[in-house]
Amino acid sequence: MLDYIPFIRIPVILENGLSTFSLLMMLAFLVGSFLLPKEFERRKLDPSHSDWLIFLGILGTLIGAKIFFIFEIWDQIFVSIPGYDGKYLYPLTHWDGFPGQRGLWSSLFSGGGLVFFGGMLFGLLFITLYFRYFKLDTGSYLDAIAPAMSIGYAIGRLGCFVSGDGCYGFATDAHIPLFVFEFHGAHPSGVPVWNTPVMESLMAFAYFAYFQYWARYQNFKKWSLSAQFFMIHGTARLLIEFLRVNKAVFPFVDPPEIVNIPDANGNPTFLSGYYWHGFSQSQYISLALILIGVIVFVKGKLWQKEVQSA
């Protein structure tokens, strides 16, 4: 029988306190900064914009990822605590929030807690505003960005895995090397769980290969690659969320109870109670991205190629 692949936090000791997650995030943007100007040049777009777009992508990622994280834990920040007045005022005026709960400001400015979708959406927002300000051809530039966004996401997801930040799946009895591992990160469960960060990263590398080595050479109509990215990325994230430990926005069935009782081997068993019980925040965003992509793709007949001028 195949053994589970144990999870080992990759140790990185640097004086400036950089983590493995930070290094992989930096690598993701560095790879993007290498690919982007080359694709701009190939498409006869102005490569001088690439540095600003990378900067805005980083800025949007940091801001959006944190804001969406706050929305994700909203009910853990603004709660009704007996003996404390001001359900919404108290967390605004106290750094650590209510005793025993998450603090709004401490969570917002902490080193952890990042929601990738929030970072991607805010990054796209900042970049689109940049296009409008300089009156650039938004569709052409976004199409050129699709491959870089894909590989950036793939590398960034590996950062989630090595950091052990909790982007894991629920417990499983499957014995699948690489796709199942024993989580020993921030929540030391000691039980085999779906390795969703690596699974999602592999999917992102796959559609990066699709964009980088085939789709961008097909002379599709403008906006086609952007619409395809929304549909492919949204579908990948929608599917992987069915395996992840996530809270449903509107539960369709009773949510799992978190019971931390040691099993026969002394391992906490709280992960085994998880199951999909409704669409998560990320799944609703995924559905919106898929819908937008489908509408743009179908309305513009973007499977067609540009007509070459004689």
| Total DSSP helices | 10
Derived from helix and strand composition plus strand pairing, the structural class reads mainly alpha
Q: State which percent range the strand residues make up.
A: under 5%
Number of domains: 2
Distance between the termini: 63 Å
Q: What's the average pLDDT?
A: 83
| Uncertain regions spanning at least 5 consecutive residues | 1-17
Subcellular location: Cell membrane
Organism: Leptospira idonii
Keywords: Cell membrane, Lipoprotein, Membrane, Transferase, Transmembrane, Transmembrane helix
EC number: 2.5.1.145
Structure description:
With 310 residues, the protein is mainly α. The protein folds into two domains: 46-136, no CATH class; 139-309, no CATH class. Helices cover 51% and strands 3% of the residues. It contains ten helices and three strands. A three-stranded mixed sheet has the order 1-2-3, with no helix packed on it. Helix 7 packs antiparallel against helix 8 (196-213). It starts with a strand and ends in an 11-residue tail after the last helix.
